[in-house]
Amino acid sequence: MNYRTVTAACAIAAGFWAMVVPPAMGFCIRQTQDEQDLMAGLLGQPAGLSNIELSLGEVSTNLSGIYRGGDFLGLSSGVVLSTGQVDRLVGRNCADGRSPLIPEDQRAGCNGVVQGNRTDLNTDLVDLEANQPLTPGNRYRFPKDIAVLDLDFTAEAGFLNLGYVFGSEEFVESTLNNDYLNIWLNGVNLAQLNDGQSVNVNNLVKPLDEGFQLNPDYIDNAIIGSNPANQITPLDGYTQLLHLRGPLLPGRNNLRIELGDGPQDDDGYDSAVFLGQIQVEQVPGPSMLWGLLSLGGWKLRDWLRQKMR
């Protein structure tokens, strides 16, 4: 099943999230910029949030969608952002920049594209029919793509919890571009690897001149390898499931997710972030605390009475 078929299977109308999708459908992505769809995919029905508003950055065409069947990521469903076309994140890994291309992929194509490049996720405004091998005189130069999602909402005091996975086509041979992920909650960037470093390509795979070290959070997805996900997504690598937890302010809050290209020109190496559904951890307010203390007092009184008998 190629990426077009899988994407078509995901293209269910407004009732997408209300339907039970059979596991046999596997991993699929539906590209959408519809704010209500994205809100439903990111929030579900979280208690404790109100007056919710979602918006996308100016460069948003084709860069956002909702996904299902992301069990290999540790996430069953949610929202996906990419620096390229999100629906191209589904399919077999056909080119990783390290392994020889499969001859049949060069002849008949893989995931709908004849492979002639060192990357199969070079969808940044590129004419795929003109996809030719990179040479000193033929280097693609794409504008920097930044996918931004802003979520504004009202909350009581509590904590926001979110699971996410960052992946990129830059792994492991093109770490100079250094795509990155920021997740800001009320101005504080909470996107971190488990060692406390910020989430970017170089912190997951150190470049050759720095010793070529792999971060424990990194999962390789080469064409030739033991990871079965190389039959599911073209991404050359991704993180294990990461989690963030941040305090909510009483009143208005802002969650800003920013996925962007690194400081150098992007030679068509797309990156992506898969977001799970937001979970709100509510903290009891004053009235609830008073009620709990009162209940505890009654329980203590009953216990003392029993002891005194």
How would you characterize the overall build of this protein?
By secondary structure, the chain is an alpha+beta fold. It has one domain (about 5-305). The chain is built from 5 helices and 15 strands. The protein has helices at about 5-10, 35-45, 105, 200-205, 285-309, and strands at about 30, 50-55, 65-70, 75-80, 145-155, 160-170, 180-185, 190, 200, 220, 235-240, 240-250, 250-260, 270-275, 280. Strands 1, 3, 4, 6, 10, 11, 12, 14 and 15 form a 9-stranded antiparallel β-sheet that branches. β3 (about 65-70) and β4 (about 75-80) form a beta hairpin. The chain starts with a helix and ends with a helix. Residues about 1-10, about 10-25 and about 115-145 have low confidence and may be disordered.
Number of helices: 5
Largest sheet: 9 strands, antiparallel
Average of the residue pLDDT scores = 75
Broad structural category: alpha+beta
Spell the H/E element sequence: HEHEEEHEEEEEHEEEEEEH
Q: What ranges have pLDDT less than 50 throughout 5 or more consecutive residues?
A: 1-9, 12-25, 114-143
Shape: globular
Count every beta strand, where a strand is a DSSP E run of 2 or more residues.
15
Assembly level: single chain
Share in helix: 10-25%
Indicate the radius of gyration in whole angstroms.
Answer: 23 Å
Distance between the termini: 75 Å
Strand content: 25-35%
Count structural domains.
1
